Amino acid sequence: MKIPVALTIAGSDSGGGAGIQADLKTFSALDVFGTSALTCVTAQNPDEVRAIAPVNVEIVIQQIKAVCDSFPVRVAKTGMLYSAEIIHAVALEDIREGIAVLVVDPVMVAASGARLLQSDGIEVLCTELLPKARVVTPNLHEAEILCGTTISSVDELKAAAHEISSKFDLACVAKGGHLAGEEVVDILVDGADEHVFSAPRVATRQTHGAGCAFSAALTAYLARGELIVDAVAAAKTYVGHALQSAREAGSHRPMHFFWDFDSGVE
Predict the structure, then answer these.
(1) Which of 109, 172, 221, 257 is the one with CA 20 to 30 A from 234?
(2) pTM of structure
(3) 264 found inside a domain
Protein backbone atom coordinates (compact mmCIF):
# COMPACT_ATOMS: atom_id res chain seq x y z
CA MET A 1 0.00 0.00 0.00
CA LYS A 2 1.21 3.48 -0.84
CA ILE A 3 1.45 6.10 1.87
CA PRO A 4 0.87 9.81 1.19
CA VAL A 5 3.95 12.03 1.43
CA ALA A 6 4.16 15.47 3.03
CA LEU A 7 7.04 17.92 3.28
CA THR A 8 7.78 20.26 6.16
CA ILE A 9 10.03 23.27 5.58
CA ALA A 10 10.84 24.55 9.04
CA GLY A 11 13.33 25.08 11.83
CA SER A 12 14.67 22.55 14.31
CA ASP A 13 13.63 22.60 17.98
CA SER A 14 16.37 20.97 20.03
CA GLY A 15 13.80 20.40 22.80
CA GLY A 16 11.82 18.17 20.46
CA GLY A 17 8.40 19.66 21.14
CA ALA A 18 7.93 22.09 18.25
CA GLY A 19 9.33 22.88 14.84
CA ILE A 20 10.40 20.19 12.42
CA GLN A 21 10.46 17.58 15.18
CA ALA A 22 6.81 18.21 16.02
CA ASP A 23 5.88 18.17 12.33
CA LEU A 24 7.51 14.82 11.64
CA LYS A 25 6.04 13.25 14.78
CA THR A 26 2.58 14.48 13.77
CA PHE A 27 2.94 13.19 10.22
CA SER A 28 3.93 9.76 11.52
CA ALA A 29 1.12 9.67 14.06
CA LEU A 30 -1.37 10.34 11.24
CA ASP A 31 0.06 7.73 8.88
CA VAL A 32 1.73 10.15 6.46
CA PHE A 33 5.35 9.79 5.38
CA GLY A 34 7.16 12.92 6.46
CA THR A 35 10.04 14.54 4.61
CA SER A 36 11.82 17.73 5.62
CA ALA A 37 13.86 20.74 4.58
CA LEU A 38 15.61 22.38 7.52
CA THR A 39 15.71 26.20 7.52
CA CYS A 40 17.24 26.98 10.92
CA VAL A 41 18.90 25.29 13.84
CA THR A 42 17.81 26.55 17.24
CA ALA A 43 19.14 25.94 20.73
CA GLN A 44 15.92 25.87 22.74
CA ASN A 45 13.74 24.10 25.25
CA PRO A 46 10.08 24.73 26.18
CA ASP A 47 11.13 27.71 28.33
CA GLU A 48 13.46 29.66 26.07
CA VAL A 49 15.17 30.06 22.70
CA ARG A 50 18.86 30.55 23.38
CA ALA A 51 20.28 30.79 19.87
CA ILE A 52 19.25 30.64 16.20
CA ALA A 53 21.48 29.78 13.24
CA PRO A 54 19.88 29.93 9.77
CA VAL A 55 20.78 27.25 7.24
CA ASN A 56 22.50 28.40 4.05
CA VAL A 57 19.78 29.26 1.52
CA GLU A 58 21.28 27.06 -1.19
CA ILE A 59 21.15 24.09 1.20
CA VAL A 60 17.46 24.84 1.90
CA ILE A 61 16.80 24.82 -1.86
CA GLN A 62 18.73 21.60 -2.40
CA GLN A 63 16.82 19.86 0.39
CA ILE A 64 13.50 20.71 -1.29
CA LYS A 65 14.81 19.58 -4.67
CA ALA A 66 16.20 16.31 -3.30
CA VAL A 67 12.88 15.44 -1.65
CA CYS A 68 10.68 16.42 -4.59
CA ASP A 69 12.93 14.62 -7.10
CA SER A 70 12.42 11.36 -5.21
CA PHE A 71 8.97 11.55 -3.57
CA PRO A 72 5.47 12.47 -4.79
CA VAL A 73 4.92 15.30 -2.31
CA ARG A 74 1.17 15.93 -2.11
CA VAL A 75 1.25 18.77 0.41
CA ALA A 76 4.01 20.92 1.90
CA LYS A 77 3.91 23.14 4.95
CA THR A 78 6.17 25.89 6.15
CA GLY A 79 7.01 26.74 9.72
CA MET A 80 9.88 28.87 10.94
CA LEU A 81 11.53 30.45 7.88
CA TYR A 82 13.32 33.25 9.79
CA SER A 83 14.63 35.50 7.00
CA ALA A 84 13.44 37.27 3.88
CA GLU A 85 16.10 35.44 1.88
CA ILE A 86 14.87 32.00 2.95
CA ILE A 87 11.20 32.93 2.38
CA HIS A 88 12.00 34.17 -1.13
CA ALA A 89 13.83 30.94 -1.95
CA VAL A 90 11.05 28.73 -0.57
CA ALA A 91 8.39 30.64 -2.51
CA LEU A 92 10.27 30.10 -5.75
CA GLU A 93 11.04 26.43 -5.10
CA ASP A 94 7.43 25.65 -4.24
CA ILE A 95 6.46 26.70 -7.76
CA ARG A 96 9.40 25.05 -9.50
CA GLU A 97 8.92 21.72 -7.77
CA GLY A 98 5.21 21.57 -8.56
CA ILE A 99 3.90 21.13 -5.02
CA ALA A 100 0.14 21.38 -5.44
CA VAL A 101 -0.91 22.43 -1.93
CA LEU A 102 1.04 24.70 0.42
CA VAL A 103 0.11 25.26 4.07
CA VAL A 104 1.78 28.28 5.68
CA ASP A 105 2.16 28.47 9.43
CA PRO A 106 3.38 32.09 9.71
CA VAL A 107 5.72 31.51 12.65
CA MET A 108 6.81 34.92 13.92
CA VAL A 109 7.34 34.90 17.69
CA ALA A 110 7.92 32.02 20.12
CA ALA A 111 5.75 31.64 23.21
CA SER A 112 8.82 32.67 25.21
CA GLY A 113 8.88 35.97 23.30
CA ALA A 114 11.86 35.21 21.06
CA ARG A 115 11.52 36.60 17.53
CA LEU A 116 11.46 33.75 15.00
CA LEU A 117 10.97 35.90 11.90
CA GLN A 118 13.14 38.89 11.11
CA SER A 119 11.23 42.12 10.54
CA ASP A 120 12.10 42.35 6.84
CA GLY A 121 10.74 38.83 6.37
CA ILE A 122 7.13 39.82 7.07
CA GLU A 123 6.78 41.79 3.83
CA VAL A 124 8.27 38.96 1.75
CA LEU A 125 6.00 36.46 3.51
CA CYS A 126 2.98 38.58 2.54
CA THR A 127 4.01 39.44 -1.02
CA GLU A 128 5.69 36.24 -2.19
CA LEU A 129 4.71 33.22 -0.10
CA LEU A 130 1.10 33.72 1.04
CA PRO A 131 -0.22 34.39 -2.50
CA LYS A 132 1.10 30.93 -3.45
CA ALA A 133 -0.42 29.14 -0.45
CA ARG A 134 -3.71 27.26 -0.16
CA VAL A 135 -4.14 27.96 3.55
CA VAL A 136 -2.52 30.01 6.31
CA THR A 137 -2.85 29.21 10.03
CA PRO A 138 -2.08 32.32 12.12
CA ASN A 139 -2.55 32.45 15.86
CA LEU A 140 -4.11 35.59 17.33
CA HIS A 141 -0.87 37.61 17.45
CA GLU A 142 0.15 36.58 13.94
CA ALA A 143 -3.32 37.48 12.65
CA GLU A 144 -2.93 40.90 14.26
CA ILE A 145 0.35 41.42 12.38
CA LEU A 146 -1.12 40.25 9.07
CA CYS A 147 -4.16 42.54 9.51
CA GLY A 148 -2.54 45.42 11.34
CA THR A 149 -5.36 45.50 13.90
CA THR A 150 -5.85 44.42 17.50
CA ILE A 151 -7.96 41.31 18.11
CA SER A 152 -9.67 40.86 21.46
CA SER A 153 -12.88 38.94 20.69
CA VAL A 154 -14.22 36.10 18.57
CA ASP A 155 -16.02 38.59 16.32
CA GLU A 156 -12.76 40.44 15.70
CA LEU A 157 -11.04 37.11 15.02
CA LYS A 158 -13.72 36.32 12.42
CA ALA A 159 -13.21 39.71 10.79
CA ALA A 160 -9.46 39.14 10.69
CA ALA A 161 -9.89 35.70 9.11
CA HIS A 162 -12.11 37.20 6.39
CA GLU A 163 -9.64 40.02 5.75
CA ILE A 164 -6.65 37.68 5.50
CA SER A 165 -8.53 35.24 3.25
CA SER A 166 -9.60 38.01 0.90
CA LYS A 167 -6.28 39.86 0.94
CA PHE A 168 -4.18 36.84 0.01
CA ASP A 169 -6.81 34.80 -1.87
CA LEU A 170 -6.47 31.70 0.30
CA ALA A 171 -8.15 29.89 3.15
CA CYS A 172 -7.36 31.25 6.60
CA VAL A 173 -7.61 29.35 9.86
CA ALA A 174 -7.42 32.04 12.53
CA LYS A 175 -6.71 30.34 15.86
CA GLY A 176 -8.24 31.76 19.02
CA GLY A 177 -6.20 29.98 21.65
CA HIS A 178 -4.93 33.29 23.06
CA LEU A 179 -8.44 34.67 23.59
CA ALA A 180 -9.87 34.34 27.09
CA GLY A 181 -12.63 31.86 27.78
CA GLU A 182 -13.39 28.25 28.60
CA GLU A 183 -13.82 27.44 24.91
CA VAL A 184 -11.09 27.73 22.27
CA VAL A 185 -12.64 29.05 19.07
CA ASP A 186 -10.92 28.77 15.69
CA ILE A 187 -12.29 30.32 12.50
CA LEU A 188 -11.89 28.95 8.98
CA VAL A 189 -12.68 31.33 6.16
CA ASP A 190 -12.32 30.00 2.62
CA GLY A 191 -13.65 32.53 0.14
CA ALA A 192 -17.29 33.13 1.01
CA ASP A 193 -17.46 30.15 3.38
CA GLU A 194 -17.04 30.57 7.13
CA HIS A 195 -16.78 27.73 9.63
CA VAL A 196 -16.46 28.02 13.41
CA PHE A 197 -14.74 25.30 15.43
CA SER A 198 -15.11 25.32 19.20
CA ALA A 199 -13.75 22.96 21.83
CA PRO A 200 -13.24 23.10 25.63
CA ARG A 201 -9.90 24.59 26.63
CA VAL A 202 -7.48 21.89 27.78
CA ALA A 203 -6.15 22.50 31.27
CA THR A 204 -2.41 22.10 30.77
CA ARG A 205 0.58 24.07 31.91
CA GLN A 206 2.42 23.81 28.58
CA THR A 207 1.19 24.27 25.02
CA HIS A 208 4.65 24.43 23.43
CA GLY A 209 4.40 23.05 19.90
CA ALA A 210 0.60 23.09 19.67
CA GLY A 211 0.62 25.51 16.72
CA CYS A 212 3.18 23.43 14.83
CA ALA A 213 1.23 20.24 15.54
CA PHE A 214 -2.00 21.82 14.31
CA SER A 215 -0.57 22.99 10.99
CA ALA A 216 1.24 19.65 10.56
CA ALA A 217 -1.95 17.72 11.28
CA LEU A 218 -3.85 19.89 8.81
CA THR A 219 -1.13 19.18 6.25
CA ALA A 220 -1.31 15.45 6.94
CA TYR A 221 -5.09 15.26 6.57
CA LEU A 222 -4.93 17.25 3.33
CA ALA A 223 -2.24 14.85 2.07
CA ARG A 224 -4.64 12.02 2.88
CA GLY A 225 -7.24 13.60 0.63
CA GLU A 226 -9.55 15.21 3.19
CA LEU A 227 -11.52 18.33 2.31
CA ILE A 228 -10.21 21.43 4.06
CA VAL A 229 -13.20 21.76 6.44
CA ASP A 230 -12.84 18.16 7.56
CA ALA A 231 -9.06 18.49 7.76
CA VAL A 232 -9.31 21.52 10.07
CA ALA A 233 -11.80 19.76 12.34
CA ALA A 234 -9.65 16.63 12.51
CA ALA A 235 -6.48 18.63 13.17
CA LYS A 236 -8.14 20.48 16.04
CA THR A 237 -9.28 17.17 17.55
CA TYR A 238 -5.80 15.68 17.17
CA VAL A 239 -4.11 18.57 18.98
CA GLY A 240 -6.71 18.57 21.75
CA HIS A 241 -6.06 14.89 22.47
CA ALA A 242 -2.29 15.41 22.27
CA LEU A 243 -2.53 18.14 24.92
CA GLN A 244 -4.89 16.12 27.11
CA SER A 245 -2.54 13.12 26.94
CA ALA A 246 0.61 15.06 27.88
CA ARG A 247 3.00 13.23 30.21
CA GLU A 248 5.88 14.29 32.43
CA ALA A 249 9.31 14.57 30.80
CA GLY A 250 11.68 15.92 33.42
CA SER A 251 10.29 19.25 34.58
CA HIS A 252 8.16 19.61 31.46
CA ARG A 253 4.87 18.18 30.27
CA PRO A 254 5.11 18.01 26.46
CA MET A 255 2.30 17.05 24.12
CA HIS A 256 1.85 13.35 23.45
CA PHE A 257 1.94 13.19 19.66
CA PHE A 258 1.19 9.46 19.53
CA TRP A 259 -1.73 9.48 21.95
CA ASP A 260 -3.82 7.30 19.64
CA PHE A 261 -1.27 4.50 19.96
CA ASP A 262 -0.86 4.81 23.71
CA SER A 263 -0.31 1.40 25.32
CA GLY A 264 -1.95 2.63 28.50
CA VAL A 265 1.29 3.31 30.37
CA GLU A 266 0.81 6.31 32.63
Answers:
(1) 109
(2) 0.94
(3) no
